[in-house]
Automatic annotation (TrEMBL):
<dbReference type="InterPro" id="IPR010585">
    <property type="entry name" value="DNA_repair_prot_XRCC4"/>
</dbReference>
<keyword id="KW-0539">Nucleus</keyword>
<feature type="compositionally biased region" description="Basic and acidic residues">
    <location>
        <begin position="196"/>
        <end position="219"/>
    </location>
</feature>
<feature type="region of interest" description="Disordered">
    <location>
        <begin position="196"/>
        <end position="260"/>
    </location>
</feature>
<dbReference type="GO" id="GO:0006303">
    <property type="term" value="P:double-strand break repair via nonhomologous end joining"/>
</dbReference>
<keyword id="KW-0227">DNA damage</keyword>
<dbReference type="InterPro" id="IPR038051">
    <property type="entry name" value="XRCC4-like_N_sf"/>
</dbReference>
<feature type="compositionally biased region" description="Basic and acidic residues">
    <location>
        <begin position="231"/>
        <end position="247"/>
    </location>
</feature>
<dbReference type="Pfam" id="PF06632">
    <property type="entry name" value="XRCC4"/>
</dbReference>
<dbReference type="GO" id="GO:0005634">
    <property type="term" value="C:nucleus"/>
</dbReference>
<protein>
    <recommendedName>
        <fullName>XRCC4 N-terminal domain-containing protein</fullName>
    </recommendedName>
</protein>
<dbReference type="InterPro" id="IPR053961">
    <property type="entry name" value="XRCC4_N"/>
</dbReference>
<feature type="compositionally biased region" description="Acidic residues">
    <location>
        <begin position="220"/>
        <end position="230"/>
    </location>
</feature>
<dbReference type="InterPro" id="IPR014751">
    <property type="entry name" value="XRCC4-like_C"/>
</dbReference>
<feature type="domain" description="XRCC4 N-terminal">
    <location>
        <begin position="23"/>
        <end position="117"/>
    </location>
</feature>
<keyword id="KW-0234">DNA repair</keyword>
C-alpha cells in the first residue's frame, strides 16, 4: 500500500552560493519504487523512476530495496538537519535533486534526475491540494486530541475526588474499627483480671484446710512422745535388773587344754 509525504526542503541556490531557496517535494511511496513531484512555486518537475531503476540503484549501494526506499523516504519526507540538499540544473531544462547523509562514518550522496513537468500548474495544484488536505486532517486531529485531553482531564479530576473520598472513608473506618477494638480489648482484660482474682481466692481457700491438718498431725505426734515419757520408771529398772541376772547366770565355756 502506498504512502504519501510532502516536505519543504531548504536548498542552496545554484546562482548564488550564499543564498537559499525552498522547494516542496511531494512523494508517493510504493513497496518497490516511488514518485516525486517537485515545485518551487512556479515551475514543477517530476521524478518517476521505474521499479528496475530503483532496484539497480539500491544494488549499486549494496542495500536491500526496502532499506533504500526507507532511507529515501526518511530524507525526502522531512528535512534532516545534518543533510545537505541541492536542486541543480542539468543544462537541458531538467533538474537534479541530491542529498547527503552519513553512513558508517562516510558521507554519501544520492541524487535523482527530475524532468520538467508538461503541466506545472496541475502539479502545483496537486501539491497545494495535498497540503490543504493534510492541514485539515492535522487540524481535525488537534481538535480531537484537545477534546480527548479535556475529557481525560475531567476524568482525572473525578478520579482524584473519588480517591480523596475513599481515603477519608478509609481513615474514618480505621478509627471506628480501632475504637471498637479497644473496647473489646479492655473488656477482655477486665474479664481476665476477674478470672485471675477468682483463681487466687480459690487457691487460698484450698490452702487453709491443708495447713490445719498439718498442725493437727504435729500436735498428735508431740502428745505421743509425752505419753511415753510419763510411763512408770520402776518398770524400766526391774526389766533392766532381770536382764543383767540372766546374763550373769549363763554358764561360761572355758577352753580345755590337752596335756601330752
Amino acid at each position: 500500500m502506498e504512502r504519501y509525504s510532502c516536505s519543504k526542503l531548504v536548498i542552496g541556490s545554484a546562482d548564488d552560493g550564499n543564498g537559499e531557496e525552498a522547494i516542496f517535494v511531494k512523494g508517493t511511496w510504493f513497496p518497490t519504487h516511488f514518485h516525486l513531484v517537485i515545485t518551487d512555486g512556479l515551475a514543477a518537475w517530476l521524478c518517476h523512476p521505474s521499479e528496475e531503476e530503483v532496484k539497480q540503484r539500491a544494488s549499486q549501494w549494496d542495500l536491500p530495496l526496502s532499506e533504500y526506499l526507507h532511507l529515501s523516504e526518511r530524507y525526502l519526507a522531512l528535512q534532516q538537519p545534518l543533510s545537505i540538499y541541492a536542486f541543480d540544473d542539468t543544462g537541458d531544462g531538467h533538474k537534479r535533486l541530491s542529498w547527503t547523509f552519513e553512513k558508517e562514518g562516510m558521507t554519501l550522496l544520492w541524487r535523482w534526475k527530475c524532468t520538467k513537468s508538461p503541466d506545472s500548474r496541475k502539479c502545483n495544484v496537486e501539491i497545494l491540494d495535498f497540503l490543504m488536505s493534510s492541514n485539515v486532517n492535522l487540524s481535525d486531529k488537534v481538535v480531537r486530541d484537545n477534546e480527548l485531553f479535556e475529557k481525560m482531564k475531567v476524568e482525572a479530576e473525578k478520579c482524584l475526588t473519588q480517591s480523596e473520598r475513599i481515603a477519608n472513608e478509609k481513615v474514618e473506618f480505621e478509627s471506628e474499627i480501632y475504637a471498637k477494638f479497644l473496647g473489646v480489648l479492655n473488656s477482655k482484660k477486665s474479664k481476665l483480671r476477674e478470672l485471675r482474682d477468682k483463681l487466687s481466692k480459690q487457691e487460698n481457700t484450698e490452702k487453709s484446710p491443708r495447713e490445719e491438718d498439718t498442725d493437727k498431725s504435729e500436735g498428735f505426734a508431740e502428745e505421743s512422745d509425752y505419753d511415753k515419757s510419763d510411763e512408770d520408771p520402776q518398770k524400766d529398772i526391774t526389766s533392766s535388773s532381770k536382764d543383767k541376772d540372766v546374763v550373769a547366770n549363763k554358764p561360761s565355756r572355758q577352753k580345755r587344754t590337752r596335756l601330752t
